[in-house]
Design a protein that fits this description.
The structure holds 2 protein chains of 2 kinds.
Chain A: H1 2-18, E1 60-62, E2 68-70, E3 79-84, H2 91-94, H3 97-101, H4 104-109, E4 112-118, H5 122-130, E5 139-141, H6 148-153, E6 165-169, E7 175-180, H7 189-200
Parallel strand pairs in A: 3-4, 4-5
Antiparallel strand pairs in A: 1-2, 3-6, 6-7
Chain B: H1 2-24, E1 39-41, H2 46-52, E2 59-61, E3 69-75, H3 80-97, E4 106-113, H4 117-127, E5 133-136, H5 140-144, E6 152-158, E7 164-171, H6 177-188
Parallel strand pairs in B: 3-4, 4-5
Antiparallel strand pairs in B: 1-2, 3-6, 6-7
Helix pairs in contact in B: 3-6
The chains are: A alpha/beta, B alpha/beta.
Chain lengths: 201, 190
């Protein structure tokens, strides 16, 4: 009987945990039922390997438009904002870059370029970003070797996706801002703009 | 032993029962019903305050707006559909403002769900939006509105005694400003 009671408690607890999490993410109607809701995830699942003030590790990744984009190509010319998003076709990510897409002026005013990076492969990123409209910034694939750039920065999670992270690298190639937020939430755009404004002050 | 089992069972049932309301949440606003209670800060912008007929400072709820009909757009600056529809929504608002019989009686607001004040400001500036927009950064209004997808439009009709009812509650933007206005007015019985 005691066993039965313990079993009941366990069963009830498990059933509750298994219920889908209501994520309240203001899903855009544009995506209809085409995005996957991974439910509530562990907020952060990696440890940063870079820090503010340090030189950013260089990388070169293929972009959806076909060219190879390296970090070093912007050295001496533009500040670089890197937006790592965890995975294509998921809830929060699908509504992050479309917002940045209407904020081009804020980046331009601050002499900055935006690079979007995910660990998905090019065909997936192509199909996904086409639903967002015409993006003004390059979208890069960190698919192979899988998540190598994310891992270099210390934002590769144990399941092979990346964190929802923002890095700002100044014209000299130095990391000036690093934000690894709760993967379940979209960071406020104001954080990026304030950091860029401070860089240009 | 039997008693122990029964107490375990009761505890489990209570846990599930307590969790139900939180998991169920609210549904989208229903035509014929009243809006859920939501408050927003009175705009600092004087022309927006004047448009809504509100006194400076504090908070207000939507049925306090000085109008017979209020049309509410639930949007997000991060939503591609809301971005694409923004010029049509502006056209819809302009049609109301340019019609002497509607201006002052039919008013419009937007609620940016999951958007900070800053993000709502980016959307306002990008699309040159004249009607008042409010931030719902913590999704509190969104939760009360049944976590609808965006853009979502709600129309309410306010009687002289300030009682109100929802007459329109649907997902999707206007697509066509004139057609949308005609549909709204017809459904509002105007």
């Amino acid at each position: 009987m005691k066993l039965m009671g313990t079993f009941w408690i366990l069963w009830m607890t498990m059933s509750l945990l298994a219920l889908p999490v209501n994520s309240a993410l203001a899903q855009s109607g544009s995506w209809q039922d085409n995005v996957y809701d991974p439910g509530k995830l562990k907020p952060v699942d990696s440890r940063l390997k870079v820090e503010v003030g340090q030189r950013a590790p260089d990388f070169a990744l293929p972009s959806v438009s076909g060219e190879i984009v390296s970090l070093s190509r912007f050295k001496g010319r533009k500040h670089v904002v890197i937006s790592f998003v965890p995975a294509a076709w998921t809830t929060v990510c699908s509504d992050q870059w479309p917002g940045y897409n209407i904020a081009e002026a804020l980046f331009a005013e601050n002499n900055a370029i935006l690079l979007g990076i995910s660990v998905d492969n090019i065909p997936t990123l192509f199909a996904w970003t086409r639903q967002m409209g015409e993006l003004w910034f390059p979208v890069l694939s960190d698919f192979w070797p899988h998540g190598k750039v994310a891992d270099t920065f210390g934002v590769l999670r144990s399941d092979g996706t990346s964190e929802r992270a923002i890095f700002i690298i100044d014209k000299a190639g130095i990391i000036r801002y690093a934000h690894v937020g709760d993967i379940n939430r979209r960071p406020d755009l104001k954080g990026i703009v304030d950091a860029l404004t401070a860089l240009n002050r | 032993m039997k008693n122990k089992f029964i107490s375990c069972l009761i505890v489990a049932v209570v846990v599930v029962a307590l969790s139900m309301p939180a998991l169920a949440g609210n549904g989208p606003p229903v035509v014929g019903d009243a809006l859920p209670e939501m408050v927003f800060p009175v705009p600092q912008n004087a022309s927006h305050r004047e448009y809504l007929g509100l006194e400076e400072g504090g908070t207000f709820s939507i049925p306090q707006i000085d109008a017979q009909v209020v049309i509410i757009e639930i949007f997000s600056m991060y939503c591609p559909h809301c971005q694409r529809e923004a010029p049509t929504v502006n056209g819809f608002y302009a049609k109301i403002q340019n019609d002497g019989s509607l201006k002052g009686r039919v008013k419009m607001i937007g609620i940016g769900v999951g958007n900070s004040e800053f993000e709502v400001g980016v959307f306002r500036k990008k699309y040159n939006i004249s009607f008042p927009l409010f931030a719902d950064a913590d999704f509190s209004a969104h939760k009360k509105l049944g976590e609808v997808r965006t853009p979502y439009f709600i129309g309410i009709k306010i009687a002289d005694d300030r009682n109100h009812r929802v007459f329109y509650s649907q997902l999707g933007g206007p697509h066509d400003a004139r057609g949308f206005l005609e549909k709204m007015l017809q459904q509002a019985g105007q």
